[in-house]
Design brief:
alpha/beta; Nucleotidyltransferase, domain 5; 2 domains; 9 helices
Length: 334
Amino acid sequence: MAIILGIESSCDDTSASICKDGKIKSNIIANQEVHAKFGGVVPELASRAHQQNIIPVVDTAIKEADIDKNDISAVAFTKGPGLLGSLLVGVSFAKSFALARQIPLIEINHMQAHILAHFIDEPKPRFPFICLTVSGGHTQIVLVKDYFHMEILGQTLDDAAGEAFDKSAKILGLPYPGGPLIDKYAQKGNPNAFSFPEPRIKELDFSFSGLKTAILYRIQDEVKKDPDFIPNHLHDLCASIQHRIVTILLNKLQKAVLKYQIKDVAVAGGVSANSGLREALLELGEERSWKVFIPKFEYCTDNAAMIAMAGYYKFLKKDFVSQQVSPLARMPIV
């Protein structure tokens, strides 16, 4: 029997999960509301909040899984990428917990874990499959050949899709985090009300910096003519912005599927919780005869269940690390 404690602390969510023989038994997440008034995550405040949250979160995960802490076989933790101060809290706790019980440590790449969230519940994709990973810090198309054998086919050359959502929300005067608010308001708007450009980037790479600038200039120009332009057109603006970001993502994904002739297609990362992206991907999958895999909402955003699941597959390989392990703010997926 293998019982894995998963620890996730890469940004501003403190999370702990218990995986028992490949089944998630608990997944506890503590959010940090302190960042809202600053319009974004403040790294120092995030790391302090992790210190306050991590013991209660781990304790709750163990109790909810109905196990004893001494039953745990190994501790899996996010090594990177992420905010260094936040990662340090999770790594330090994992090392201490493992050392006290003389059990193995398992380091996990946060972005690989997002992809492996697809193996928490049925249906599970078959290897090889193509995964679009989209978050606040990353936008990648990944060829997944095995649990830990992945190849990046394309990635953003500048900003990530999640950042494009959040920065667009800020331009519209929406509070942080703005991405989910754009999604909410878009559902009542017309996606074709406003036109925004699609960047011309070769192959399978992405770029969102130019789109952000185009959105900013368009809205500034309209506000000069009508100071009430944003409140009068908020739903249509959100729908149009979301539509453009989603079409950029899916146009590249279509190219990858055509090029590699793989029709098992998945999406992962925080932006995969976006309803516009989920619906458009399902529609495209039906049109193109793809097998589409989308995780449950709770496994899209940062969570420890994906860390524990990735840890379980590494545990089976006895892929452990020493107590000398350190977090990495930047950590490539391959």
